[in-house]
Amino acid sequence: MLETTSYAISPSKVNEPKLVNHSVGSIQSFEWDGEKLNGTLSKGTFLLYFINEKTLRFHVNPFGDPKTESSVAVVGDSGSMEGELTEDEVSLSIDYGFAKAIMNKNPFNLVVKRDEEVVFETSSTCVGYTSEKHVFFNVKKESDRPVYGLGEKSGFLDKSGSKISNWNTDVYAPHNKDTVELYQSIPFAILHRPKMPVGIFFDNSYRTEFDMQTYQNSVSIMGEGGEVNAYIILGTDIKDVVKLYTDLTGNTPLPPKWSLGYHQSRYSYTSQDEVKQVVDSFKKYEIPLDCVFLDIHYMDGYRVFTFDEEQFPEYEKLIQELREQQVDVVPIVDPGVKKDVEYPIYRDGITNDYFCNYIDGTIYHGEVWPGESAFPDFMNENVQRWWGDLHAFYTKLGIRGIWNDMNEPSVFNDTKTMDVNVMHRMNGELISHREGHNFYGLYMSIATFNGLKEQMENTRPFSLTRAGYAGVQRYSAVWTGDNRSHWEHLEMSIPMIMNLGMSGVAFSGADIGGFSSDTTPELLIRWTQVGAFLPYFRNHSVQDSIYQEPWVFGESTLQSVKKYIEIRYQFMPYLYTLFYESEQTGVPVVRPLVMEYPEDENTFQISDEFMLGSQVLVAPILRPGQTHRSVYLPQGVWYDFWTNEQYLGGQHHLISADLDTLPIFIKGGTILPLGSQVQNTKEKQSVSLHVYFDENRQASGLLYEDDGISYDYREEHYSLSTFTMKKGEKLITKQGGLLEADTTFDQIVIAETNNDEMGES
């Protein structure tokens, strides 16, 4: 508790000794097999090879031989490229044709050139280490070069000038710019420079830190253990870097369509009657709804894989009835298993040695919601299968999605987590929790996702996780944890989700209205407006806050919130198409403007606008009482979604937006598929095509369709319609996939206004 008082800045702490950073020295020997270069250093060993023409693996172990196997995060390190090595007195140079890697011998460092221009360079002290076995990787960076990515971090979009550390942490206290360690650890940064951005994935599961503050012209990357295991991505633009990163760590799979609808949650709806009342109210007010969540109070004493049969006496019937109303139910499942010898899950885990324990075999217990609890060792494949099989309890009821929380793992003690001396069994080896901590949530997501997939034949599961590591996108959607009903948290959620997208996580969102504290009608409206255009769309609130369902604040708020939930479904054909594209390419659904306009310096620092795909720009209102804002529109012609008024890009515009209006702009050249009004994603939508011509009087668009739930689309059982149109001519449609388009097209709407001659506005 003293750390929250002035004791935290006690003068006695100023001169604490710092660990001395030692260099690995120089190259002592090397071997080259035509594809991979490895060798010994004054201290340790190194390995270098290109996976493809734009991705280089650079591995240095100051303490022994380098580990050549990949971590769980990596699925795309399966090959190596041929090159030609030459040696002189000072360096080893490998010419790959597409790039040249130069290893300077003394001091040991790395330079990569493309077309004779340096695109990546380490500092003169390339790799260092300390007596505590911390490792350092030092990379040159121009002082004005923006840095993006790094997963789920508070603050603005550009992380240059910051120290960003990664240690999955349950943070209930209000998040702010100084709340660096949150629930996700994704040690991947994009150093942006037009036409030559570089991605650095520092694949190290220990606590890591990206220091972009101490040195003006470099980034120092530290791991509190392990080795320097870096993947260097040399892209042509940010989008290219993200594509290559997701080639390496995996793409977000196409989710079931129902998971993209509106989700309603609270900590907690404490009885089946309350759940029914909530769903009945959505039906009463004709508000679209796809899913309702069950937080921890549905369980028997917070025991996972149980129901409290006093509060939920007919839970099987409840779930069946809701499914008949086209409402899915997603229950929470935490990792903590209550210590109770009469509880079958606990007894089974003890009997089969499925729980985390110390090296002497003593089981680790920590306190969480059920009280004293044991924690499954998810890094053990046998435990993953056991945990996955347990989900039959839910899937037999008709449940198709699971919400994993508290999986940092969170423990109610001073460290907020498991003892770092606990051991895990990963791939047949023992590792400490200090090494495995950041992996824990990812491995739980693997167990959950694979368990659901196994239980539900040819059905896409929905998995939502709070904690994770690089590669988590292959298994789970992510929400940004315990935010607050603060305007600052609404604003902060936008760059968090954009940076998650640039870190491979395409399916993410924040709790609409704020989880903790009390929301207000205005804040709920503005937050719903934003959430309607983010990948994941859920309203969620804490037990001691006021309720924040759409109807709580009266008719006016109800109608405005309902309007934007309906707009979410109106944009569903476009949104679903973007998710399909994301699985194919790795490009996120929601993007910062700099991703689409990487050479426009005006976009580099924009944190309060975002792109939905490449064709829709959203510029939300983020302050109470505000009804106007400055909006930067990049080069081109842009249409106001509400009025069709045209604006010239490459400049700022003052835009009016009353409480019922979210500024939305459609890029000229777009054919936007919009759906008819429905109450859920299971209802069939008709589609209208809205045409926004560019300055060349042309427009194009896509529409992807499938059955919304199965994996048949991976066998080309889908329809992909490509639309093109020139002004004054007929629409041209080309069809792809094995399915015929099943959509009824209501109409083609041409966006035209009085300033249709593309004049200045």
TrEMBL record:
Start and end residues of each Glycosyl hydrolase family 31 C-terminal domain: 586-672
Keyword ATP-binding annotated: no
One GO biological process term: carbohydrate metabolic process
Superkingdom as given in the UniProt entry: Bacteria
GO molecular function: alpha-glucosidase activity; carbohydrate binding
Positions of the Glycoside hydrolase family 31 N-terminal domain: 48-211
Start and end residues of each Glycoside hydrolase family 31 TIM barrel domain: 252-578
Protease among keywords: no
Pfam families xrefs: DUF5110, Gal_mutarotas_2, Glyco_hydro_31_2nd, Glyco_hydro_31_3rd
Domain DUF5110 as annotated: residue spans: 688-732
Family affiliation: Belongs to the glycosyl hydrolase 31 family.
Name of the protein in question: Alpha-glucosidase
Organism: Halalkalibacillus sediminis
